[in-house]
Task: structure prediction
Amino acid sequence: MPTIELKNLTKTYGKNTTPAVNDVTITIADGEFMCLLGPSGCGKTTILRMIAGIEHASSGEIVLGGSVVDSVNKSHFTPPEQRQIGLVFQNYALWPHMTVERNVDFGLRIQKIPAEERHARCQDVMEKLRIAEYANRYPSQLSGGQQQRVALARMLAVNPGILLLDEPLSNLDATLRLEMRAELRRIHETFGTTIVFVSHDQWEAMTLANTIAVMNKGTLQQIGTPDEIYATPQNRFVAEFIGNPKINMIELSKATNSLDKVADHILARLPECAHADTCCIRPEEIVLSDVPHSHTLPMTIENIMPTGGSWVIELSYGSSRLFHSTQQRPYWRVQEQVNAFLPAQALHFFDQHHQRLIIDTPQDESLKRLKQPNQFGSNHTFEPNHPLTQPVNHRV
Amino acid sequence: MPLSVETPHHLKPDWWLRVRHSIAVSRHEPANVIAFILAVCFAYLILAPVISILLDAIFVHSGDAGRTHQDEGAFTLYYLTRAFMSRMSQIILWTPLYNTLAIALGTVACSLTLGVTLAWLINRTNMAGRRWFASALIVPFMLPSWTFAMAWTTIFKNRTIGGQPGWLEALGFHTPNWLAYGFFPIVVILILHYTPLVILIVGNALTRLDVQMEDCARILGAPRRTIAFSIILPLVRPALMSAALLIFADCIGEFAVPYILGLPVNYDTLSTGLYRSLDSRQNGVAAVLAAVIMIIGVITLLIDMHMMREARRFVTVGGKGNMDRQTSLGKFRVIAASIPMAFMLIAMVIPLITLFLSTIMTLPGRFTLSNFTFDYWIGHHLTTVALRNGILFTPEFWQATWNTIFIVGIASLCSGILGLLVGYAVTRCSFRGVSGFLRHITFMPYLVPGIAFAAAFLSLFAVARGPIPALYGTPILLIIALIAEKMPFASRSGIAAMTQLGKEPEEAARIAGASWFTRMRKIIVPIQAGPLATGILLPFISGIKGVSLFIILAVPSTDVLTTYSLRLLDYNYDQAANAVVFMIALIAWFGTLLIQRISGTHLAQGLES
Result:
């Protein structure tokens, strides 16, 4: 099974425009399940199309399984029909004039596989994807999910070493998404295919991929496992792009004119971070309590938004706004006062170039002594008798 | 996982590497090769004739050396001077130009008025029988315009010219010249022919209007008049303009109707003047006239393009609610239906019945039983000088029918396929310049009215040039001229079809490993079968009706039905001529119905693109 190597890959459309893909270098290992994640227009689909050979590189090189398929320096280009890969288009691109079966066995016919074997393989893959019963229907007679399975079957039938998927779950409804997610996982395990897919949806990326490459404006921002990407964003873009509700961004450089009281509070508490430009904290890392403490911020609850099984609470302190999310039903009312605690370990810092700063902040003294995990599943531990951990969200 | 966030060093290959890589890429893209071949072909088939005719206007022709006092082939302003500033220019250019513009403007004004009224009645009122009229009123547009001209002469012809008299004359009424020939009948006939086009285009626009816009105005308290004039009319205006310009351009190039109704009384338009100049071997003057027609065509198109750009600013038309709201006409419901009914009678029923009756009457206008005969269809050993058998037993008729089917059939087959290929090449070609050139050049014949285009073809292919032998008198010349003439429609529909299809079905086949031929054979052509069929059949129908190309390029051995009927008319075999015309009208009508049945599309969609 082949690896995919992208070396300094750049794609420019026309002249004098900013590149759609700018000097991207990624190595996708054999058998990997990778997601190219980014907002629309970040160049992720262009990369996918270049790997497939439908687009060509403006500079750089693409190597599939050790052989160069597209290289500007070597003046080489292998057309898609010779690359032996699979690509599932976002809108499936099924051939409307062929039945499901003909769509699926098209690639096998091209390879001149004898009829019996062709039929067997076609039947096998259709059964695996549970579309065998629609074999004689036309694409227009199928639902969106069925169409997508046909598009997938069409590519899997020829058993490509590399499978590329363009927004595989985006056109599906919620139930089908879950079903298809499991399906893709299963395919990855049974066929052992290297899968690269493109998505703008972090849920899709987090739940499916082993590795995520975050992209923005044509450049690669960070590669890592879903956990790494979430827990240690390498720059401000990744921090803000990943996570729902969005991460709380606190501008520290603004603090000099004392506009942002949260920033003031952080700078006062952690003088080491004075040279950082921004600081952020995930909504679920904020801890709320009724009891004030030297390290808490007195905040007003502005809004409580239920999001089905969890709650997003909007907090204000002067002109500053923070969002907190929790799995516990909040018992406060709007306009009530609470005390918010921002644990130092949960804070991410970025410099003026928006790159991650490693700041060795002293562990919060209140936390040093805390060992046991709290009962709410948060990573932070609290002293049972400490006012902060008292009834968090559990006042009767 | 390795982090490769730092990406400072840009590997910018120099232009040579880029070019080499582009070549490596395009080697696998046959669309580029096709685009180049097509561009060269059309440069020769479309651009070269046009340039050649323009050059004809400024270089001395063989035989003109004496008149121009210059050597043959030398640069001269003689033809231009003669057409624009000589004693003759009033006859050669200015009067025909005036006549042409008068006809075109008169036709546009009247057919718009009539067409908008009818479109409103059909689409926006509860007039009796509106559904039926919606499809019936289109029929006159399917018939060749000169069918009406033949019917008109059959009824109104007077003693000014020889031959058999018209019916009214035979019944004892004297028809004045203004009624029988010239401006008035030409305009009336063109109005009858083009009003259906207005009904189609404006009717389409009316039905596509979002009813919510009207509702919104009504909620704000606008009276009905205000709604009509400040909401609906401005939104329909682009459609009105485009119908007007389409009709105007067609009228400028109209040849057959003024040929039949204008020539007998020396009422010349630019196109008949061009024909007469060619006929009297004044190719230089003919070239000047052709250039004038082309310039009018170009100006019309530029106005059209400008209008379309203006119109695009508010193409929000079309939403959920289509405008199937009707004004109730109350007790006028049935009376209103008399307007379209009268139009139907005048534009279709009377002409066709007249034509048919004229073919079964020995003497025109005498409605006695003994005067009726089917001899002109199926008779034998008639007492005429030539044409001694009925038309159905005349070998020339069948020869002409076969020629028509053969020549027009091959031409429309080719133009349909070429149109799809142009669409493919334009949407796939990686060189913007080439695809732009291809798109514009295939549209060029639209600017050049048929008669001028035929003259251009004659000027280019009448003599052997390089490896191309002289083609005059061969069916090949007619076929390639027809292909070139039909390219605007064919390429437009091809490009539209390929754009609508998008690249993905083919890309998916590439990923599956299919070669170019497999992709074409298994994916593109089967999916595009419908548009392809329309792209072949529509040119076929309009080719059968066409006159202007054939009358200049056809010789007796390549006679087609249209030229055959005109020849019969010239020799005063009126019944036989009308019989042939009647046959053409029927073929055109049923052919169009067939297309609608096959493609499932309404004619209107094809016309608007």
Observations:
- The radius of gyration of chain A is 26 Å.
